[in-house]
Design brief:
By secondary structure, the protein is an alpha+beta fold. The chain has helices at 11-25, 58-72, 111-118; strands spanning 35-40, 77-82, 94-97, 101-103.
């Protein structure tokens, strides 16, 4: 049976027409996001020595970021659920790109300030991760030397 994409009114023809329209008028094209907020929602077994962002409320933070974005009707940034971002000791963690800003210990009440940053405002300094917060060793492992490359 021949493909229907070339028939008048077929899906293929409609898509080609829509693409031609958006290329010439740009009326329906959605702009690419300027920033991305990657929210770690990793979940570990509760017996694991390192905590997980999910156990510290990351799903609530993720949901609130999406809700705040909707309230502001802003498509200039994208909120993305991510896996582990490796700063487990200070989760929930959010990474803002392309700014390369990392937030830790985020709670729902912090979301409006983070969205201000996503909309082009300054980073939320009190939430930014410092170098020592990247040490992934839980307290029971503190006497061990850090791994070598």
């Amino acid at each position: 049976m021949p493909a229907a994409s070339g028939l008048p009114g077929s899906t293929g023809t409609r898509v080609k027409s829509w693409l031609a329209l958006t290329a010439t008028q740009g009326a329906y094209a959605m702009p690419a996001p300027q920033r991305f907020a990657f929210v770690c929602i990793n979940q570990r077994d509760p017996s694991h020595p390192r905590p997980s962002c999910a156990a510290n409320g990351a799903a609530d933070v993720f949901h609130e970021l999406r809700e705040e974005q909707g309230r502001r009707v802003d498509t200039s940034f994208k909120v993305v659920a991510s896996g582990c971002t490796e700063a487990c000791m200070v989760g929930p963690v959010i990474a803002i790109f392309p700014d390369n800003v990392w937030y830790g210990g985020v709670i729902e009440q912090d979301v409006p300030e983070i969205v201000d940053h996503l909309q082009g405002g300054p980073p939320v300094e009190r939430l930014r991760l410092r170098g020592d917060e990247w040490d992934l060793r839980p307290p029971e492992m503190e006497n061990r030397p850090p791994p070598t490359a």
